[in-house]
Amino acid sequence: MAQTPTAPRVGRPRRSSQQMLEDAAAELFLEQGYAATAIEQITQRAGVSRNTFFNYFGVKSDLLWIDLDRSIALLPAALAESPREAGAARLDALAAAVLAVAARHPADRVPWALSQADLMGTRAELEASALARLTAQTRAIEAFLEGWSGRARIRAVACVSVGAVAAGLAEWIDAGVRRDPLNAYIAAALLPALAGFREES
After folding, report:
1. Distance from C-alpha of 21 to C-alpha of 180, rounded to nearest angstrom
2. What distance lies between CA 196 and its chain's CA centroid?
3. The domain containing residue 129 runs over which residues?
4. How far apart are CA 100 and CA 200, in angstroms?
5. Is the terminal CB of the chain with fewer CB neighbours within 10 Å at N or C?
6. Tell me: the pLDDT tens digits for 128-150?
7. Residue 11 within a domain
8. Which residues contact 47 (CB under 8 A, 6 or more apart)?
9. Helix axis angle, 88-104 relative to 123-145, nearest 10°?
């Protein structure tokens, strides 16, 4: 006698260990502050092992960048696929790559460690852990601009670009629930910042 096929299980998909760690960290940082929260408390709240934590995060401060790191990681590939034109066209390609990456950032993924920095006590750690990320993006832009102009000018464009992106991101976070897509804020900061360099090209 043939068996009746088992009906597929209905319900919410199981959250991944990484998502559980992210949620647990956000809850604990809000409850007791970033500095007072240990990795062991996060893993206990998430119901996973300490080893599982280090499968996803190198250090506790990586939790502060979970939303942005996913988007930041896309920039080098976007630049690698962009045309290395001469003159001002190289700046156009740079802006297009940055804005394309920003456009891919999910509208509902507002970095909680930034938007709730005062409540969570994350501001000092964000400032300390930002340097490596900003430096990496500056170097990626410098590599893309290599051969476009002199070294000092390339470095200036890279630093200004990263600063403009940071300014646009801050405006996006501060805009609240009615905010526009992230790329709109970054365009508003980045395009005027690059305009002066375009005129000199």
Report:
1. 29
2. 27
3. 64-200
4. 25
5. N
6. 999 999 999 999 999 999 999 99
7. no
8. 20
9. 140
